TrEMBL record:
GO molecular function: phosphorelay sensor kinase activity
Coiled-coil intervals, chain numbering: none
Name of the protein in its database record: histidine kinase
SMART domains attached to this UniProt entry: HATPase_c, HisKA, REC
PROSITE patterns with a match to the protein in the record: HIS_KIN (PS50109), RESPONSE_REGULATORY (PS50110)
Keywords: Kinase, Phosphoprotein, Transferase
Superkingdom, natural source: Bacteria
Taxonomic placement: Bacteria, Pseudomonadati, Myxococcota, Myxococcia, Myxococcales
Amino acid sequence: MQALNIQRTGEAPTACPPPEPLHPNARVNAALKPSVPRTPALTAVSDASLLRHTDDSPDSPRARVLLVDDTPSNLLALEGVLEPLGQHVVSVRSGDEALKALLLDEYACVLMDVQMPGLDGLETARLIRTRERTKHLPILFITALSREAAYVTRGYEYGAVDYLLKPVDPNILRAKVSVFVELYLRGEKLRQQALELAERRRVEEELQRATELEQQLVGIVGHDIRTPLAAILTTASTQLSREALPDAQRKAFERVARGGERIQRIVDQLLDFTRARVGGGIPVVPGAGDLNELCHKVVDELRAARPERSIQFDFAHDTLPGVWDLDRLEQVVANLLDNALKYSPRDTAVRLRTYEQGVDTVYLEVQNAGAPIPAHLLPTLFQPFRRGDGPGQRESLGLGLYIARSIVEAHGGTLRVESTPEVGTVFSLCLPRQALGDTRAHSSCAGVAAPMTA
C-alpha cells in the first residue's frame, strides 16, 4: 500500500507516488479539489454558509477537524485523505492561526505538523493545553523527524494523543481521525440531551409550582368563604325557627338555607381537593366503629331526603367492626349512594352490600341499574373535575369520586368500578379491617380484585 508522503518545510519537492485512491474518481495530488467543505483561510472559519450547511443537516451532524501545516500541498493532501469522512475540514498554515481558529469554533481533533516557522507544533500544542476550553482537545502530530524515543516523548509531554511519522498511511490516518470524530459527536449528542433534559425539568418545576400555587389559593379562598357562609346559614336557621314567620319570608329563607348548604358542600370539596393534591393526601383519624351502622345512618338520611327512592341492604353480617375514620367513610358512602340515585331510573332500587373476606379485609358495594358508564369515560372517572351528564350535574364540581378514592386510599384501601348492561354499575370499596397509619405499608387490598355482584 502506498503511503502519504507529506512534505516537510524547507525540503525540495520530491517525487513520490500519490496515495492509494480514495475512490474510483478521486486521487490525492497537487491539482485535487476536494468536495469536502474546506476552509483554507482563518477568516472563513465561522463563515455563514458553513453554518447554514450544518443547520440544513440536523440528522447528520458534522464535526470540525483542524489541519495545521505551513505547506499548502500538505494541507491539500490531508484534505483529500479525510474527504471520505464527510466532516468539515479547516486548514490553517501556522500555529498562531491555529490558536485563533480554536477561539472561534469547536473541533473534534487537530492534525498538526511539528516543524513550522515561528510557533512550531510543540509550542502550539503547549498553548492549546493551557486554555481551559481546549485542554482536552485531541492533537495528532505529523512529522518527518526520526523515531528517536526522546523526541516522541517530548511530543506527548506537550499534549499529543498520537504521533504519526511520514510517510503516513491514508487508511490509518482516516481511521484515527474517525475515532476522535465519533467521540466528539457522541459527546455533543450527550450534551444536547443534557440541555434538553434540564429544560424539561425546569418547565416541569414551573408547572408544578404554578399548580401548587393555584391549589393553595383554592384552599385559602375556601377557608375565607366559611366565615360569611356560617353567618348566612345561622341567620337563615334562626329565621326559620320562628313560628310566626310569614309564608313568603319562610320560602325565601328556605331558599337561602338550601343555597348556603350547597355552597358549604362545594367549599368542603374544594378544601378536600386541596388537601389531597397539596397536603400529600386527605388526613384520616381512625377509630373503632361499625361499617354497617354507618351505612344505616347514611341511608336513613337519604331516605328522608328522597322518600320516593328505594335503597336495599344486603349485609352478610349484622355487624362489621373495624378501625376507620368513620366521618370520612360516611362521606364516601354518601357520595356513592347519591351518585347511584342520580344515575338510575326512579323506579329501580339501589343496592348496598357489605361483606368480609378473611379476617383482615372488608368490602362495600353500591349497585344501581342505570345505563352503563361509557367505556371511554371509565379510565378518567376518578380524576378531578369530571362530571356526568345526569340532571343536576352542572351544579357539581366533579370532585366527589376523586375525593372518595383519596379517602379510601388514605385508609390503605381501593375503590373500583364495573359498569356493564348486564350488571349495571357497581362501585366496590375494599378496606383493610384496620386503617393503615402509613399508606405505603402493605395493604390487604393491594392487588386484590373484588368479587363483583352477580
